[in-house]
Write a structure and sequence with these properties.
Length: 544
């Protein structure tokens, strides 16, 4: 009987599971989110299903506020864990459960409220719907919209023991030598694997993560420290390795991250002792989640309160905001990655993704304790009115980063073509900055599509940079120009791209095309580019 496996939790109106999306926000592109598309393109023209009266988004919110956790079908009770066998039993229209990022939800009551119709939801009934969901709704905040339907966690997490192979040291290591010992790790067999060791000197404590994975860079780590509570997430391809310790002694928030690549990658986290010269008897106490490794798509996001340091006007409807991470936090998002801003709007938690940018396209790069976001303001948006009201000294919650662009794709790229529409320019900023600040001979072409000239983001900066560095070529195309505009006009089409794409023999090996914009723009761009013979190996589509 199910009743024997249930327990009754302390219910909070908004269950905080810090995840990505939701099954109930308007169709892409959300009006106040940066339009991104990456990986697989959503089906062009995917139609909404007419809903019955009283089945709008706000009607669903009101129902949830009225009924609360009883919407989960278990009278508000929850299951400690849900097996895949139990999940599979609930695959019908009147009894449908699904899994999103390791969490099980009863989606039966949501059927009539889903803009895509019940049939779309039923595709995920009785199975893990995370991949299907991410292909269509990656920008949506499901943890808020389905919080009332939560049942429990799926029993399928993947973890790696923190103990090393036989003859290694115990979990809590107490090495005090002045140099790290030689370490080995069992042969890599596909899924990323990791473990850690540590050593110390008079002024520092060095935690070394040994990892078997395809890629490891200094950007692949997020640190959050409060007092002596130390948390680090290390991104190993599509998995996350977690460290969570109550440190033996206090350390400063001045971190140094070093990566040494090899058959076994090494990531060194250098912590500065608060009391230099003091010898530590141990690294510290292991806390919940320490040493675990799991798929990134199942990992709950962590949100942190960040202060607004600076607000700058970019255009008539777009702002550049600089946020200061809290004391003890360290984060350097990779190129093209996004974070989520979260706020409570009319009693409901709302979060939206925004791509991390550089503070300027022609100056110094950002540091690891600040984040810069370029955000277009929609006066009737769900979140951007709150963002628009932010002033210097204000506070808003910001999540971990997410994304899919692999920076190593730039290594063999000699011809980088960027197709951007509107706020789809934001992931291109760091691609341009990185390409032009490196010593490569890589040429960069930006085809920037907007409605009017006043909508062009950083127009003057792009003009200055292209004049200064001839490796950058910029073309602006306007769909609704005024009579003074002398440049290209119209929307993305074959004739415009033909002039800028290299279709000579062997082009695919040295050219990379990146696309970002609203769904119709991306779909058209992808169709046209493929007509010139390009495959997905030569393309990257940004998403959030």
């Amino acid at each position: 009987m199910l009743e024997s496996t249930l327990y009754r939790p302390t219910y909070t109106k908004q269950r905080r599971m810090a995840s990505l999306n939701s099954l109930s926000v308007p169709q892409f592109p959300a009006r106040d989110s940066p339009q991104r598309l990456g990986g697989k393109v959503a089906e062009p023209g995917r139609a909404k299903v007419p809903l019955k009266p009283g089945r709008s988004l706000m009607d669903w919110v009101r129902l949830g506020q009225k009924s609360g956790p009883a919407l989960n079908g278990l009278r508000g009770n929850q299951m400690p864990v849900v097996t895949t066998e139990e999940l599979a039993k609930h695959n019908k229209r009147d009894d449908a459960w699904t899994v999103l990022r390791g969490h099980v939800y009863n989606i039966t009551p949501y059927m009539e409220y889903h803009p895509g119709g019940a049939d779309e939801l039923l595709k995920a009934a009785g199975i893990d719907g995370t991949d299907l969901f991410n292909n269509i709704h990656q920008w949506v905040n499901f943890e808020s919209m389905l919080s009332w339907c939560y049942i429990g966690s799926l029993k399928n997490s993947f973890s790696v023991p923190t103990k090393a192979p036989p003859k290694s040291k115990p979990k809590v290591l107490t090495s005090s030598s002045s140099e790290p010992k030689q370490q080995e790790i069992e042969k890599y067999e596909g899924k990323p694997r990791a473990r850690y060791d540590w050593y110390q000197n008079a002024s520092s404590v060095i935690i070394t993560v040994y990892a078997k994975c395809q890629m490891l860079t200094p950007n692949c780590i997020i640190i959050d420290k409060t007092s002596q509570d130390f948390k680090a997430k290390v991104y190993l391809d599509d998995h996350i390795y977690s460290l969570h310790l109550e440190l033996n002694q206090p350390v400063t928030s001045d971190y140094k991250i070093q990566v040494r690549k090899g058959s076994v990658h090494r990531l060194e986290i250098v912590l500065q002792k608060m009391e230099s010269g003091k010898h530590w008897q141990g690294l510290g106490k292991q806390m919940e989640g320490h040493g675990s490794i799991m798929e990134a798509k199942e990992k709950e996001l962590t949100f942190r309160n960040c202060n607004v340091k600076k607000v700058e006007k970019v255009t008539h409807d777009t702002k550049l905001l600089t946020f200061e991470l809290p004391e003890g936090s360290w984060m350097s998002p990779p190129i093209g990655y996004h974070v989520y801003l979260k706020a409570t709007v009319n009693g409901t938690e709302v979060n939206r993704p925004y791509t991390v940018v550089e503070p300027t396209i022609i100056g110094k790069p950002m540091n690891n304790t600040q984040l810069h976001l370029m955000i277009k303001i929609y006066k009737d948006g769900l979140l951007t009115p709150t963002v628009d009201a932010l002033k210097e000294g204000g506070v808003i919650e910001i999540s971990d980063y997410e994304g899919s662009f692999v920076e190593s794709r730039l290594d063999s790229c000699q011809d980088l073509v960027l197709l951007a529409a509107g706020s789809g320019f934001t992931p291109m900023i760091r691609l341009i900055h990185t390409s032009l600040t490196s010593n490569s001979n890589r040429k960069v072409k930006l085809l920037f599509f907007n409605k009017t000239e006043k909508d062009i983001l950083w127009q003057q900066e792009l003009e200055i940079l292209s004049e200064k560095d001839k490796r950058l070529e910029v073309a602006h195309i306007l769909s609704n120009p005024d009579s003074t505009w002398k440049g290209l006009t119209g929307r993305i089409r074959n004739e415009i791209l033909k002039e800028h794409l290299n279709n000579q023999p062997g082009f695919a090996k040295t050219q990379l095309i990146c696309i970002c914009g609203p769904t119709p723009f991306t779909s058209t761009a992808l169709t046209v580019v493929k007509q010139f013979g390009y495959s997905m190996e030569s393309l990257h589509l940004f998403t959030a």
